[in-house]
């Protein structure tokens, strides 16, 4: 098919990089055809390299180095390097894979710990927290807030709350502030001051100013409510959202000053507040007194003082047995 | 001719090409080549060290020139060829090969160059401090034309670099100059040189990765 001169020209063009895909295919086949062809291929390759040197080497110097090495026996070392090298690389590779995996696992384990900061208050303890975005959070007693530690790591301003907290949120229309509660209720904030109450019994959101949107995650989907200032939304265990007007605006997060404001609040609810904020068990003896209500404000940093005052106002007695408070109806 | 197009380079080749005064007309050469081959083979058998001298004088230059097309670095090319020749001598491979010495040496250098380039492309991170990739002959392309395709693609990739970046890349990669030397010579900051080198590397890798890097990844995972 091709005579000697054509093949030579084709090969030289091929080394230059100016042959077609089909010609390349022909060369492949031709080289595979016989060892003689392969020899011709390398003969022309050598010729081409001689004519088109990429650079000129110092052959004499290389020869001197080569002689030195073979005389001192170091050239044997080169051979053994070639044998050893793969193993060396494998062990390095294995080591790298192992350490990366380990590091990855450690990192995953501590990643949350690094990027999320948890604020906790004990019983009867209040805390004021300023988040990285300037939002001020007042944490009521026995509450926990999880917030991103670094602004650049937080893709949104999302915090998790267990307990009760009042938020004074810095306005940012692009990056909304969201309070997530463990009861599946999210509070999406549009710049505002509000309180979220989320204890085992129920969840309550109270809005002082601005606008918030509540999103309830149900099994069936989402339910959302937009709140106006002065409104309060309660969610009981049944998951139904109830909206009501706040009758006493001063009641708004009054606990921030250890002050409690009650507006026809039942003794059952007060007992719950004492229990949650001071970590004591509160018991009510008798069916009727639990429904009695109380109005007014009260300031106390101490559970006993608080309970005594409540008992006095309601005209009932209060006993303490092993850290257990008991309200008893007087005969 | 797919040569690295730096002015310094071209001048160097032109000015030193006179050295090759024993140049023989091409017509006569092929006949002489066969004689040479027999002569070398004979010498290797009788007196290996003398034979190796002939091998060096004949093949060192074209082998290095060929290797540098793959590895882009004079130093690496010379190391590859020296290692190859040392192995050829130490293990007395000249006694066992079934092909001609030329075929064996060119084939081997192409394999090493091919694998080096692909490892180099797959190697991430800093140019200066990464460990040397392994030069092995374990992977062989299924057809002979893949070798030319790889180094010609490599060549084309270097050609796409903007002129200053290409100049820096060649000074560093081909000439083996340090970043500091390049920075001094071109009146640039070391940081700029570093950035340009990094970008060159990224650009070259980017151009070659679709066609050539998949092989390497599969290959390295099998190790």
TrEMBL record, chain A:
Q: Which UniProt keywords apply?
A: Membrane, Transmembrane, Transmembrane helix
Q: Which domain of life is it from?
A: Bacteria
All copies of the Protein FecR C-terminal domain together span: 259-324
Known InterPro entries for this protein?
A: FecR (IPR006860), FecR_C (IPR032508), Ferrdict_sens_TM (IPR012373)
Residue intervals of the FecR protein domain: 118-213
Q: Cite a single GO MF annotation.
A: sigma factor antagonist activity
Keyword Transmembrane helix present in the record's keywords: the answer is yes
Transmembrane parts of this sequence = 94-111
Name recorded for this polypeptide: Anti-sigma factor
What is the organism lineage in this UniProt record? Bacteria, Pseudomonadati, Bacteroidota, Cytophagia, Cytophagales
From TrEMBL, chain B:
The record's section on Gene3D superfamilies has:
1.10.1740.10, Winged helix-like DNA-binding domain superfamily/Winged helix DNA-binding domain
Gene Ontology biological process terms from the UniProt entry = DNA-templated transcription initiation
GO molecular function per UniProt: DNA binding; sigma factor activity
Q: Where is the RNA polymerase sigma factor 70 region 4 type domain?
A: 152-201
Matching InterPro entries, A to Z? Answer: RNA_pol_sigma-70-like, RNA_pol_sigma-70_dom, RNA_pol_sigma70_r4_t2, RNA_pol_sigma_r2, RNA_pol_sigma_r3/r4-like, WH-like_DNA-bd_sf
Q: Which UniProt keywords apply?
A: DNA-directed RNA polymerase, Sigma factor, Transcription, Transcription regulation
Q: Which domain of life is it from?
A: Bacteria
A cellular-component GO term for this protein: DNA-directed RNA polymerase complex
Q: Which family does this protein fall into?
A: Belongs to the sigma-70 factor family. ECF subfamily.
Any idea what this protein is called? DNA-directed RNA polymerase sigma-70 factor
- Organism listed in the record: Cyclobacterium qasimii
- Taxonomic classification, please? Bacteria, Pseudomonadati, Bacteroidota, Cytophagia, Cytophagales
